[in-house]
Amino acid sequence: MYKDYLEGCYKGLKRKSIESETLTNERESYFCKEQSKMPIFPKEQCVMNAWSDFQLESDRLNRNGESIRAYNTIAKDNTHLKLGIGGTPTNWKTSLIVAWIYIHLSVIFLLISMPLLAWLLGNEKLSFDLIKICFLVWLISKLVSIFLRKSRLFKKLKLQTFFNRTSGNIEVPSSDGKELIGLKYDEFNAHYRVVHNPNSGFPFRGFTLLHYKKDELFDYTGPTYIYDVFCELELIENFMDTTKPLADIPQFEYYREFDKTTAEFDKANGRPKYFWYRVERKFAKQMNKEALKLSKEFDNDEQLDNLLMGKPIKKLNPPEIFKFPWKYAENIKPESEIKFGKTAWQKFTSFLMIDL
Questions:
Q1: 234 shares its domain with 190
Q2: Is the pTM of this model over 0.90?
Q3: Both 249 and 201 in a single domain?
Q4: Which parts of the chain register pLDDT below 70?
Q5: Are 181 and 235 in a shared domain?
Q6: How do residues 144-173 score in pLDDT, each as one tens digit?
Q7: Which of 28, 158, 211, 352 has the fewest beta carbons under 10 Å from its own?
Q8: Mind telling me which residue stretches traverse the membrane in this protein (predicted)?
Q9: 195: three-class secondary structure by DSSP
Q10: How far apart are CA 256 and CA 302, in angstroms?
Q11: How far apart are CA 356 and CA 146, in angstroms?
């Protein structure tokens, strides 16, 4: 039955109907049982665009030098091109770290806001007491994060999912976070995922990459609109499809020269090397505006209904700027002028945060 499921539903050889209950009886996880009943995203590309709001953040990371660590990692061993993505926590250790990060951010907020409020209300003694308490909590959290980052114990934890373009595997953290379980990407279905958002009332949408048989998964939620979910999913599909060049986005810049298909495409089309390191920052914002225009051609409500009912999704035809962005960019500085580095404010804010 699983063979029929894999060949019929996933690979798209036949779009025949198979009862969900038949497929879920052998699953151990209640979440996986329920998630496997959800609609499956089509394998063919629909929005044909991997540009999301996160690309502006990726552009910033490229410019301040934080992405150079990833670049150097690939340069040392370019036999495995891995895209690391943090989805919804899949084990208690990841959940604990995520909770810790949010608590640390809350302490920073309180360190600034509470003493200031007390001072404005005229209670200077309380203001100084609050500064000392919040500073002490922040300092302990910061020192613990430094210790963990340098300890062998933390280095052994596997808390992030990796998409390996070279091997074609998804490397998923085990339930105890001590190892990565490698499974073929072609054995995963992208099931629709929706989570209630109590703050705004609008749901968070996403997908669960769920193995067709085993209870191994990558869970992603966050966007409100289904268009953005398609963009994120197609970004992953593009990274894992070695027959096509990588999408020309800031997030993939440091992979391009190490991937044979992409390097050949760039050479054949005269793409400037390290384009996203050399182009002006405002060009990334221009690309973001173009992506917003494209998203308006995608009726989110209608296409979500189509997905839930198993109907075809409208396919978009992105403008050429997404395939050949360098042809539309101005003031591409020489390669010799590439500089990386954080501003004083970026260095200060990085110091305040915990870095795991």
A1: yes
A2: no
A3: yes
A4: 1-25, 87-91, 152-159, 177, 356
A5: yes
A6: 888 877 776 555 556 688 999 999 999 988
A7: 28
A8: 97-118, 130-148
A9: strand
A10: 36
A11: 8
